[in-house]
Amino acid sequence: LGHFALTGRLFDLLDAAEGIGGDARVVTQSSGAHEQGEMDFSDLNWERSYGKWQAYGRSKLSNLLFAYELQRRLDAASDGDGDPGIRSVACHPGYTDTNLQMRTAEESGNPLMKVGMKAANAVLGQDADIGVEPMLYAATADVDGGAYVEPGGLMNMRGHPTVGRSNDASYDRDDARKLWEYSTEATGVEYPV
């Protein structure tokens, strides 16, 4: 909900930047973990049961549903020239060696998980200065609104950025619309598009 509320509250500034010739865009950070996400609109707040990895996957899928729905709404509100003026672009950093993996392993209390994460970071993890490239590319490169920027290397977990495709669930228009309506109601933030 934070992405939705912040972007909505900044929308007038984005529109003003576009109006003076700026390249206004919204970049939504997601994760490859969106592929494990499933939308359950009957329990969006995890009141029945909670699984941290399931919740993380759903939150990353939700980020993408938001990004793509925003672009659809921007396109629909454009002045007919095919350029809505504001672009919504999504990205994910790949497998980046940060303290996220080691902290998760330490919090689990499982010494084998700690060894496994250390090995995974050494073999699969890329440095943070490479992991940030998809976000920088999404924010500055000449990419279309609705693009999904990801690492272009090994299983889209590492490497320099490329425009790719997120999973099919992230393009589900019905889920995106439902999530938008829920987000509007939960935050009280209305968009002019």
Unreliable stretches covering 5 or more consecutive residues: none
Structural class: alpha/beta
Q: Topology as H/E string? A: HEHEHHHHEEH
Strand content: 5-15%
Overall geometry: globular
Mean pLDDT: 92
Number of helices: 7
Keywords:
single chain; 193 residues; alpha/beta; four-stranded mixed β-sheet; 7 helices; globular
Q: Could you characterize what this model shows?
A:
- With 193 residues, the chain is α/β, with parallel strands linked by helices.
- It is built from seven helices and four strands, in the order αβαβααααββα.
- The protein has a four-stranded mixed beta sheet with strand order 1-2-3-4.
- Helix 2 (52-76) links the parallel strand 1 and strand 2 (86-91).
Q: Secondary-structure blueprint of this entry?
A:
Layout: H1 2-19, E1 24-29, H2 52-76, E2 86-91, H3 99-108, H4 111-123, H5 128-131, H6 133-140, E3 148-151, E4 161-164, H7 173-187
In short:
The chain is 48% helix and 10% strand. With 193 residues, the protein is an alpha/beta fold. β1, α2 and β2 form a beta-alpha-beta unit.
